[in-house]
Request: fold
Amino acid sequence: MKYSYEFKKECVQLYREGKWPDTPEGVEEKNFHDSIRKWFRLEELHGPEILKHGSNINWTPDEKLEIVSKVIAGKSIKSTAIEKGINEGQLYSWVNNYKIYGYNGLVNKKKGRKSKNTTMKKTNIHKPKELNESEREELIRLRAENEYIKAENEIIKKEIALREKRYAAQLKAKKQRLSNNSKTKDTN
Reply:
């Protein structure tokens, strides 16, 4: 659940006074109290601005490596995350990426889908370009040629299927002859 900046500040203030705020509906009390303790530690180390949403920092791969090396050296993910003011889940993924890919796992990757062809320029697909007379004639010729090639392919496929069928029938007949020959030899 996401909480507003004001709500977090209010909870931290009540925690300083030794009181617990009312637990929101649908949230376990223990988890909520753990969150308040974490907000309190974050605010002590980094100031109240750390509790705001969107206060993300763009970490360089070298900075990430420094943080990850602390975790690998034995410091807990939770305490390292609070000390640096980052989310525990984010730090956990950095550590995993480092273990799998090494330093390259910490390098920021471009987000989003890769384009299929980077040399293609975007065109307006809603209004196709008008064809001139020679282009139109070529298009008609190419479509006819395409139909002819498709028909040729169908004929070739049928010929191959007939050959395979004949070959299978020949094999079957040969097996039957061999089988009949072996039966007659056995009876003699």
Notes: Helices lie at 5-16, 29-46, 61-72, 77-84, 88-101, 133-187. Residues 179 and 185 are 10 Å apart (CA to CA). The mean pLDDT is 82. Residues 133-187 form the longest helix (55 residues).
